[in-house]
Design brief:
Length: about 650
């Protein structure tokens, strides 16, 4: 394939860097858990997915989307920029964005997550070649933003200030620190996947430059990033190297947001209007926001900082109660890719950037690791099955940047298109999907001491090291198409420990935590748990079935979360959704698409007592449950716009009975 041929050509330019023995950094990688979190995820290396729903999505990314993105990166000069910056090629900066370097980093991160799950020498060799290319573009002191190295007076975007042509002069727009953050995130995953230092050393060299450049003190620059993510990246490097300076700089960047004595404030768009501990409303660019909230949660965990924890709790409550879409998407406004006002949730013009959904999952996962509260996985599940995977087409080669909840077939909501596109000038969303999706199995289980949390339901086998012994667990399920799960437990020896089985929010009659949405009627059907064929009278414990017992090899748990078609109504303060309902089945939000409802789409109305049938259609949209009656046919929201341009709506007008 073309991208692989291109990489082979590039290897000849960089063979010196591949063959040169890697120099050891001064820091010793200590391997200790320095996260501060009470609960830790079960590593994807120990979770082998065989799920009929998630495995094809992951394989699609691994087998199609990564290669497709490499071809696009070649076409648009992402690799060239590193080689031009390092003097191995001649030319001007290619691409339209000052953060194009990060597309390469995110592809490496996604590939590295794939390597964690399954060794692949060909893929590992390819990644090594990409790392070698990146190394070419790094300056001697560790600086790494290719467009500024190539020509600091000629940025790829005209909104970057280059009055002086110097490093760091336009941090509200230059994305130099954002680039570094994705570099660190990718390097940390690559190191964990391979044990190699080639990429980690590039990141550490750059991070050391950041430590020498920013902060309080003589000769240092007092400022914060315009676009957050370096904060979480620095923390990940700290957790690998144990270098306190990285943690200190991350906290410095957070502590000085909203501090006019530190720098000229960037304003609410960059969450730089108030000190972070004083912020209680989610505002501005949604991706920047959730990346920052994730870093704040890290600091709250590591430092046991109650002020940070109080702030992230207040921000989370505001988002989930007033600013989240039924699909789990966030960000109402195209203008600024931003949150709107409280209850401002338009459908046709909804933004719901794919990157924002990914960032929100990262944040909620941290909050669960800190508290074990089921509500965070209620948000994660809703986002995963709806507003996140909607960003990737069923062929793995087309994308949504925004994820609208309505389409008239005319309004070009998706960066100039009213359907999916094959790429974007700003390609952050496709490559963010690449880095995220292969890591999805790491969300399924968590553990603390002798307690195992089962957070999500998908067929898999997992090896879990609890405090006192290792346990092999296996799930078998057709979730999300039905709510039956068979769970087999095989401890290495008979022994007592606890397994907490999450009861999904929808099966507890909760759409989302809070009062933004509610079901039109309560489902009285009981959730069930059986052990070795005998139904247990177990009471839900804060959203979990908690089973503490002396487990024996071969113990089998059966869970049943009965599914029915549910009608959802929004808080009356959401003007766009008044006198409307949306449909759900299990964790899946449904959409009505014109192609399935020709001639009747505009006239569709439903009642609160409307009855529907649910039917699995294996030949439709890679196999989905449809919801239908004489009035309409609905498909899972995530699968819409895979059959050409047409109308769509999630919220359906209601009619009186």
């Amino acid at each position: 394939m073309k991208p692989f041929k291109y990489i082979v050509l590039l290897i000849s330019l960089t063979v010196f860097f591949n063959c040169k023995k890697e120099e050891e950094s001064e820091e010793e990688v200590n391997g200790e858990n320095q996260t501060g979190y009470v609960i830790e995820p079960v590593n994807i290396q120990n979770v082998k997915l065989n799920d009929a729903f998630w495995l094809p999505i992951i394989q699609r990314v691994q087998e199609k989307t990564i290669e497709y993105a490499l071809a696009k990166c070649e076409e648009e000069g992402r690799f060239d920029n590193f080689l031009i910056a390092g003097g191995e090629m001649e030319g001007e900066t290619r691409g339209a964005m000052p953060f194009d370097d990060t597309d390469v980093y995110k592809i490496i991160e996604g590939a590295s997550n794939s390597l964690i799950s399954a060794p692949n020498p060909k893929l590992e060799s390819l990644v090594d070649s990409l790392v070698a290319i990146i190394k070419v573009g790094q300056e001697k002191d560790g600086y790494l933003t290719t467009w500024r190295t190539i020509d600091p007076t000629n940025p790829p975007a005209n909104w970057v200030n280059v009055e002086k042509g110097e490093r760091w002069e336009s941090l509200e727009a230059s994305h130099e620190l954002y680039n570094a953050g994705h570099l660190y995130e990718a390097a940390a995953v690559h190191y964990k996947a391979t044990g190699k230092r080639n990429f980690l050393d590039i990141a550490v060299k750059n991070a050391d430059l950041m430590v020498d450049t920013f902060g309080d003190g003589e000769g240092k620059i007092a400022v914060v990033p315009g676009h957050q993510i370096i904060e979480t990246g620095l923390i990940k490097l700290y957790q690998i190297t144990g270098k306190q300076e990285y943690l200190k700089l991350s906290k410095y960047f957070l502590d000085n947001r909203g501090n006019p004595e530190n720098h000229e404030l960037f304003g609410p768009y960059s969450q730089d209007h108030l000190p972070v501990v004083a912020q209680d409303e989610v505002v501005g660019h949604a991706v920047r926001a959730v990346y920052m909230y994730a870093a704040m949660t890290d600091i709250a965990a590591i430092k046991k900082d109650t002020a940070y924890l109080d702030a992230v709790n207040a921000l989370w409550e505001n988002m989930v109660n007033k600013k989240m879409y039924i699909t789990g998407g966030i960000g109402a406004k195209h203008d600024g890719e931003a949150f709107g006002e409280n209850y401002e949730l338009p459908n046709l013009t909804a933004y719901n950037e794919t990157c924002a959904s990914i960032g929100d999952v990262y944040w909620n996962h941290r909050l669960h690791n800190l508290t074990g509260d089921v509500k965070y996985f209620d948000v994660i599940e809703r986002t995963l099955y709806n507003g996140l995977i909607s960003g990737l087409s069923l062929d793995g080669q087309q994308f949504f940047y925004p994820n609208a909840l309505e389409s008239d077939g005319v309004y070009k909501f998706n960066q100039g298109a009213c359907t999916r596109k094959d790429w974007f000038d700003c390609s952050c969303c496709p490559t963010n999907v690449i880095r995220f999706i292969p890591a999805m199995p790491g969300l399924i289980y968590s553990k603390t001491g002798n307690t195992l949390y089962t957070n999500l339901y998908a067929s898999n086998e997992a090896n879990v090291a609890l405090k006192d012994q290792d346990v092999l667990v296996a799930q078998s399920t057709s979730y999300p198409w039905d709510g039956k799960v068979r769970f087999t437990v095989n401890p290495e020896q008979k022994g007592e420990f606890t397994i907490k089985f999450r009861i999904p929010g929808w099966s507890r009659n909760i759409v989302l935590p809070g009062d933004l949405y509610q079901y039109a009627s309560k489902d009285e059907t009981s959730n069930k748990l059986s052990l070795n064929g005998e139904e247990l009278d177990v009471v839900a414990d804060n959203g979990y079935f908690t089973v503490t017992r002396t487990w024996e090899p071969g113990d089998e748990v059966e869970l049943e979360f009965p599914m029915s078609v549910r009608k959802v109504i929004a808080n009356p303060k959401v003007e766009e959704d008044k006198d409307k309902m949306s449909l759900e089945y299990g964790p899946i939000v449904y959409a009505v698409e014109e192609i399935d409802n020709k001639g009747t789409f505009d006239a569709i109305q439903i009642t609160t007592d409307e009855e529907f049938k649910v039917e699995m259609q294996p030949e439709l949209l890679e196999g989905v449950n449809t919801i239908s009656n004489q009035k309409l046919t609905a498909i899972p929201y995530y699968a819409w716009s895979n059959r050409g341009i047409g109308k769509m709506k999630v919220w359906l007008p209601t009619q009186e009975k």
